[in-house]
Amino acid sequence: MGSPQETKPSRPKWRLYLLDAALLGVLFVGRASIADHYHVPSGSMEPTLAVKDHLAVDKRAYGLRIPLTHTWLTESEPQRGDVVVFDSPIDGKVMVKRLVGVPGDRIAFDGEALLLNGQRVPQEQTADGARLELLPGAHHALHPELDQGPAMDEVEIPPRHYLVMGDHRGNSADSRVWGLLPRENLLGRVVAVLYSSREGLSGTERWWIPMSTDEGTGVDPRLTR
């Protein structure tokens, strides 16, 4: 005769709820403090970022924050040329721009080119017609139209503030409009386009387009189209 089959005791429901809550907490903290993804709402960063591009954002790049606050537990310095995600100082909406000025820099814009510490930042035209700005440490594409006003008089950037602009400067409400970006408003650094539906790309070209290559001296051609 066979012995009666033993039944495993069921796990108490409160333990299951606790496990679910713990997993949700890990996901929440991860998205709030470690990594996240965003989509691009406007054309202010064209051609680098197109409308509806999905972005991979490293939220540890500038330190660790208490989730849902602007309080930093640890800090590391942003670099000139970083593409950053931040809370708007005006209305709190999440924005994405390029960080072009760091504390101590003197920055001006004449409507066509940046002037960094008294020197005009050079630009060049590639063989395929892309317009590049040779920002020290972060060469990147600009919108091809030369007139990209409004202009901006020279400002010297104080500690814990940054100057940000769109790569399509003629279509960007940025530091020229609402002033310098406080460090506390930073959310993270864009490391890549996760997926882009922009014209000119097909198949695997649409996936994982890094923001910088070759230590900032090269530009992925997918970001200039």
Automatic annotation (TrEMBL):
Protein name per Swiss-Prot or TrEMBL: Signal peptidase I
Subcellular location per the Swiss-Prot or TrEMBL entry: Membrane
Gene (name only): lepB
Membrane topology designation: Single-pass type II membrane protein
Source organism (scientific name): Archangium lansingense
The protein's Enzyme Commission number: 3.4.21.89
Keyword Oxidoreductase: no
Catalytic reaction annotation: Cleavage of hydrophobic, N-terminal signal or leader sequences from secreted and periplasmic proteins
InterPro entries with a match to the protein in the record: LexA/Signal_pep-like_sf, Pept_S26A_signal_pept_1, Pept_S26A_signal_pept_1_CS, Pept_S26A_signal_pept_1_Lys-AS, Pept_S26A_signal_pept_1_Ser-AS, Peptidase_S26
Domain Peptidase S26: 22-194
